[in-house]
Amino acid sequence: MRKLGIDYGDSRVGIAITDSLGITAQGLETIHHKGNDKIVLKRLEELFNEYEIDTIVIGMPINMDGTKTQRVEVTNKFIHKLKCKFSKIPIEEIDERLTTVAAHKTMNFLDVNKKKKKNIVDTISAVYILEIYMSKIKNSKQ
Predict the structure, then answer these.
(1) In contact, 5 and 124? CB cutoff 8 Å
(2) What letter would DSSP give residue 119?
């Protein structure tokens, strides 16, 4: 079974997935939706049909001081849609602070072309969100 990581944004959603053993996380794709969640939900349904997903992990946009950002309400509305459409799949929320910063640092280190950055930053952020979750699970078992 696999975990699916989501970096939810206003116009793009980054998607990452674990390998079948749940050991590593890989970027899968960026869904360009321009504010239309139906596009995201349809693509997620296709991914759920393609892969055996047992957990959805979504990043929660929290400020550095721990307070909720304006995006939290928007993200919570999307989570509600996920719960309605995929009611049998558990959804875990992960503090996504600094995941986008880390994604940009990774892309800079790899010297990614500026034009390509916009298309992959959300996917890389989704990988970091998924890795945070996986570390949390691993540490709770120790």
Answers:
(1) no
(2) H
CA dihedral 126→128→130→135, nearest 10 degrees, is: -170
| Structure confidence by residue, pLDDT tens digits, 49-91 | 999 999 999 999 887 777 777 888 999 999 999 999 999 999 9
Residue 56 burial class via C-beta count within 10 angstroms: exposed 0-12, middle 13-18, buried 19 and up: buried
Number of domains in the chain: 1
Angstrom CA distances, 68 to 71, 93, 109, 110, stand at 8, 13, 30, 32
| Domain that includes residue 113, residue range | 2-140
Long-range CB pairs of 78-87, under 8 A, 24+ apart, other chains included: 78/8, 78/37, 78/40, 81/37, 81/41, 82/41, 82/44, 82/56, 82/58, 85/41, 85/44, 85/45, 86/44, 86/45, 86/48, 86/56
Supply the pTM of this predicted model. Answer: 0.87
**Residue 17 · residue 26 · CB < 8 Å:** yes
Domain CATH for 75: 3.30.420.140
